[in-house]
Design goal:
The chain is α/β, with parallel strands linked by helices. The protein is built from 13 helices and 13 strands. The protein has helices at about 1-20, 25-45, 55-80, 90-120, 130-145, 155-175, 230-240, 275-280, 295-305, 325-330, 340-345, 355-365, 385-390, and strands at about 180-190, 195-200, 205-215, 215-220, 265-270, 285-290, 310-315, 315-320, 335-340, 365-375, 390-400, 405-415, 430. The strands form two sheets. A nine-stranded mixed β-sheet has the order 7-8-6-5-9-10-12-11-13, with helices on both faces. It has a four-stranded antiparallel β-sheet with strand order 1-2-3-4. A hairpin with a 2-residue loop joins strand 3 (about 205-215) and strand 4 (about 215-220). Helix 1 (about 1-20) runs antiparallel to helix 2, helix 1 (about 1-20) runs antiparallel to helix 4 (about 90-120) and helix 3 packs antiparallel against helix 4.
Length: about 425
Amino acid sequence: MVGASAAVAAEVAVSLLLYGGLGFVRSLTTVLAVEGLAFAAGLWSSPTSDGDLVDRVRRRWLLCLFAFLGAALYGTAWSVFPALSAGRLGQGVGLALLGAVPIYGTGAVLGGMAALARTDVLGRLRGPGTAAAVGAALGFVLTGLLLPRVPIPASLIIGCMVMLSLGGMVYGGVLASRTEVDVLARRPGRGSETSVRERRRQADEVAVKELLEGSVIRRSEPIEHGERVPWDVAVVRALLPGLAGASTGDDESVGPAAERSPSRVLLVGGGASAVPHAVLRADPTASADVLERTAAVVELGRDHFDTGLAVGRRDRVTVIAGNLDDAIAALDGSYDLVIVDARALEAVGGVAGLSRMARRRIPSLVRGGGYLVWGPTDASPLLPESAARWTGLRLWRRSVAGSDEATEYVSIARPGDETSWPIIVDFEPVPPR
């Protein structure tokens, strides 16, 4: 529609200007050169990626409409008062108002649309060049058919204003359903880039901040519409207070009269997790060990998600960054709660990315009466075989924010029979098959 409007404006300007003066070739050259330069100037003025590009394109569309309004008014006056075409001044003003300014406006709109397409990280917006060229061709044909039949040529310019208004409404709907992505930070990682981005979609008012390792979303939280409890924090809040914490050894639990030992929590792939903070709040005597593949995830999680984590040991929280197999093999003792973040394993091929030794050792780190948590996944999580055979095994699920279909599943296993299970916030138990 923008391309067709440019073509109509160009041909109407040529028809009015050429046949009202002398020197066909000279006039044709002048008109086409001015219109070409105006179109180029409009494209050249495309906005940079700084600021609100959508608002800038909206203002350009209004500028284009006002340019065509001025062209329609002057074209009407040109047809009603032939004296306007008598002198060079009238010809010059006509060339500016009928040809240069409207075509500059269409170039400015197309340049703004191209800038939006360039900054669309997800690649769903296309550049407008091809569509505008097709529209221009159709506009030339449309003008050639209608121009000899309309009472005054300026009526076609008014039709362009209708096309531009309709095109603006359509493009506004496209932008409303488009997902806007702003990259806030980048870090080199182990084999892939780690980044933090803000993702927004106006149509359904979705606004989230995400931490990505390559293409894997490691952590996501809403920006504007309240707090959604992360899955691992919900699990900790439900399970940790109920742990006996009265283990005098690593492998057996004793009665409540025994001396209480501090709870220990292990997070495999928890570099961007808020669990350590939640653990310390739930039990001031507890400690947490965090294993993470890359330090970049820990840094960006601390800077943009307020995890408070740093590689090393601080405030009863130990963070180890490096090869997960080596880190798991080097662990000492056992834990009341072991959480494996399945998303952290996606970058290395899922569960198969861990060595067989690591898959066997993870369940053995859970002390008697403790829990092994594995998730979240979009299907039933795959637990290590030694844990999957535990009699105390439950599967939980909840819908993903911003989607009516996506579901994330979490498996919770416990050695031995367990008759009473706490309720996890936002999750519902999946009935056993």
